[in-house]
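Consider what follows.

. . .
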Amino acid sequence: SFAPNPRLTVYSATKSFVMFYSRSLRFELKKRGINVLALCPGPMETEFLAVAGIIAEYNPFHRGHAWQIRRLRQQLGEDTAVAVVMSGNFVQRGDIAVTDKYKRAEMALSSGCDLVVELPTVYALSSAQNFAKGGVDIAKATNADMLCFGAENDNIDTLVKVADIFENEDFCNKLKFYINNGEYYPKAVSM
């Protein structure tokens, strides 16, 4: 680490100490023909730095969102970084956000998130699948190794069954057929 890192103060300070200690030793021992070298490998995938991703609109940011972030921290620990991929001033279904993106990002950060990245408008205004794909791709770019989401139903079995339906090729083909023939998404899903 060559720069300060939030939530990693001791780690950053220790790495910095090792670098400067190695440089000092090098000058002290040079006359004796001893060379000192500090090897600094690049980033490595470890469980040391867990990143939880949240894909959200926060339109508007409310107590339920703050609860989700607190609960995430309780379950995963304070050392887990929380990266949010959030829609900008335009949200899904083409609406203009109730609060501008800067204020919503500020609320997310003050509620315990470590990073807020804007979901590009092309994804935010797209279908649910493209919204999700854009969000997941960006979350991956933040090194998120898990996703956290909120749902109206806390029964995981029901959520898995619904997800399985949307993974079914016949269902997806019928859905595309109805949408391509002019049906709105909610009606096409119910057909």
In short: The longest strand covers residues 81-87.
